Amino acid sequence: YEDNGAKQISLLLRTVPILNELFSIHYKVGEGTFSSVYLATLKNSLQSKNFAVKHLIPTCHPGRIERELQCLKDIGGKDYVVGLDLCLRHAGSVVFVMPFMKHDKFSDYVQDMKPIEMKGYMKALLTALHRVHKFNIIHRDIKPSNFLYDRSNKKYLLVDFGLAQQYTPGVKIKNINSEINQNKFQYTERKSFNENTIDRSLKTSNKPVGDKCYCFGKSKICSLCLIRPSQAASRAGTPGFRAPEVLLKYPWQTPAIDIWACGVMMLSILSGTQPLFRSPDDMTALAEITAIFGSNAMQQCARNLGKKLIFSSEIPGIDIVLLCQKLQTRKKYSKSTASETFKQEIRFNYPEDAYNLLAKLLDIDYKTRITADQALLHPFFNS
Ligand code: ADP
Ligand code: MG
Question: Is any atom of ligand 1 closer than 6 Å to the C-beta of 237?
Fold first, then answer.
């Protein structure tokens, strides 16, 4: 940040004046789709403790703010889940004050995490998720920028419950946008969100394409299909981390969607590749997943969800261990040497158990995908 967010800081202090009485805000540490986060210390205190001050964008839906606050209060402060020290509201502005944790950038460690380091990282992530899921909450936005890692002190922190949702087994996951429309709250998505973290529904044909349909196997949609009621399912989350059942707009989503995202993070580390899936849209995301798992497996996965997936040709799928090893030995950009040099990355010998756990996290069938508590008992962490 060129000016360390100085302009935004002075605006924030004018928007929430009590903040100025209590805290010195130093600089901006991060920015997501729905907030800006600043480093702050208490005024008039001998304590030099650092705080993270998260200022939510004023157009954030009140229901979303309430949910985030509730999660921080109920779940936070234990098992690597960020806690809450204070919540301030002034007129339409809301600020969360949390313990600050310095952290490294994922791109700085994804390429050179040794097996032992990766084990600690994944264990902490799954421990945090185990806690979240115990509360029947789906985080919905598991990704490296929401799981902070202080490499030198081996500290971890799961943050950002901005998209979290309550999960009741057997009940359709509500779409936050439809709630917003019903309540007639003014809601604006950040203009520059650029298909980043978004929360909206994709409407698709509700019924499987049957005999009466005229467009079966054709590229055009027939008039019968056009008038079919549409199906809305939550797809809140970040491209590249969405589970197959989210991409296929399955309405009965479960905490397993967070486990899939953990699997994507682990795959990134095992392959030393980031971003792994570029996923500019949901169809491309499905194609990327299909490239790994093959079209037959994906069609079966869709069938299990009551959906039909059609491919123009059969895609065989690939061995995930070979994929990781191949990606690891690619020539990669080297940070340690001068800007334009490249070096051959040394391949780490991740144990077989690591790949076994990866396959269980990235199970395309959400029903058989490993849960956080089962994963913590996996031999990878216990051998
Ligand atoms: P958003 O909902 O806008 O994505 P986040 O809660 O993810 O907001 O915060 C955005 C960024 O701010 C994070 O990626 C991280 O870099 C930084 N951040 C958030 N919470 C903390 C914290 N407690 N300590 C240090 N940095 C934090
Ligand atoms: Mg975030």
Answer: no
Alpha-carbon distances, residue 115 vs 259, 268, 287 (angstroms): 20, 13, 30
The verdict on the CB of residue 77 being under 6 Å from ligand 1 is no
ipTM of the complex: 0.99
Ligand 1 center to 32 CA (angstroms): 7
Tell me the three state secondary structure of residue 358: helix
Ligand number nearest to the C-alpha of 72: 1
Which residue CA neighbors atom 12 of ligand 1 most closely? 30
- Report the amino acid identity of residue 339: S
How confident is the model over 191-220, as pLDDT tens digits?
A: 233 333 433 333 344 444 455 677 766 777
Catalytic residues: 141
Question: CA-CA distances (angstroms) from residue 106 to 12, 348, 370, 372?
Answer: 28, 18, 24, 22
**Could you report the per-residue pLDDT of 15-51, keeping only the tens digit for each?**
999 999 999 999 999 988 889 999 999 998 888 899 9
Residue nearest to atom 14 of ligand 1 (CA): 145
For residue 208, the CA-to-ligand 2 centroid distance in Å is: 36
Surface-to-core class of residue 170, CB atoms within 10 Å of its CB (0-12 exposed, 13-18 middle, 19+ buried): exposed
Atom of ligand 1 nearest to the CA of 31: 10
Inter-axis angle of helices 352-361 and 115-134, nearest 10: 30
Query: Can you give the pTM of this predicted structure?
Result: 0.87
Residue 298 DSSP SS3: helix
